Amino acid sequence: QVQFVESGGGLVQPGGSLRLSCAASGFILDYYAIGWFRQAPGKEREGVSCISSSDGMIYYADSVKGRFTISRGHAKNTVYLQMNNLKPEDAAVYYCAGRGLFCGISPDEYNDWGQGTQVTVSP
Questions:
Q1: Which of 43, 59, 97, 122 is 20 to 30 A removed from 105 (C-alpha atoms)?
Q2: pLDDT score, position 4
Q3: Are 37 and 48 in contact (CB under 8 A)?
Q4: Given this model, what pLDDT does residue 85 score?
Q5: What is the pLDDT of residue 70?
Q6: What is the predicted pLDDT for the residue at 49?
Q7: For residues 6 and 29, what is the distance between their CA atoms, to the nearest angstrom?
Q8: Which residue ranges in the chain fall short of pLDDT 50?
């Protein structure tokens, strides 16, 4: 059974940092493209970043480029999202999701999802 578990969310002041983790059980994360998405209240779920499996390609939404970094922790079967210089508009529930070898653009392209972790950015 494919299962993702996100962690690392919390309350942080604007300009602060958080590192989110997406851990897997029952399968090897390296074999999957892993995407990070977020959803704020009243808004649609949007893509934040993705790392492919086959070629290691990495993608970021324009709104997070230069501030967020996605990476794989191979030994721990985990994908991380390092978030720096957080802004109030980054506040949302963050989800990780997996699909085949390549990243997808739409959340609908992802098969399996975690439960999410809340990120709050407030003074």
A1: 122
A2: 92
A3: yes
A4: 98
A5: 97
A6: 98
A7: 13
A8: none
Distance, CA of 29 to CA of 48 (rounded, Å): 18
Phi, psi of 74 (to 5 degrees): -60, -45
What number of helices (H) and strands (E) belong to the chain? 0, 11
Burial (CB count within 10 angstroms: exposed 0-12, middle 13-18, buried 19+), residue 67: middle
Strand pairing partners for 20? Answer: 81
Residue 103's Cα: distance from chain center in Å? Answer: 12
Query: Residue written as tokens 């002041």?
Result: 13
- For residue 38, how many other CB atoms are within 10 A of its CB? 24
Burial class (CB within 10 angstroms; exposed 0-12, middle 13-18, buried 19+) of 84: middle
Question: What tokens were used for 60?
Answer: 């970021």
Structure token digits, residue 112: 């399996």
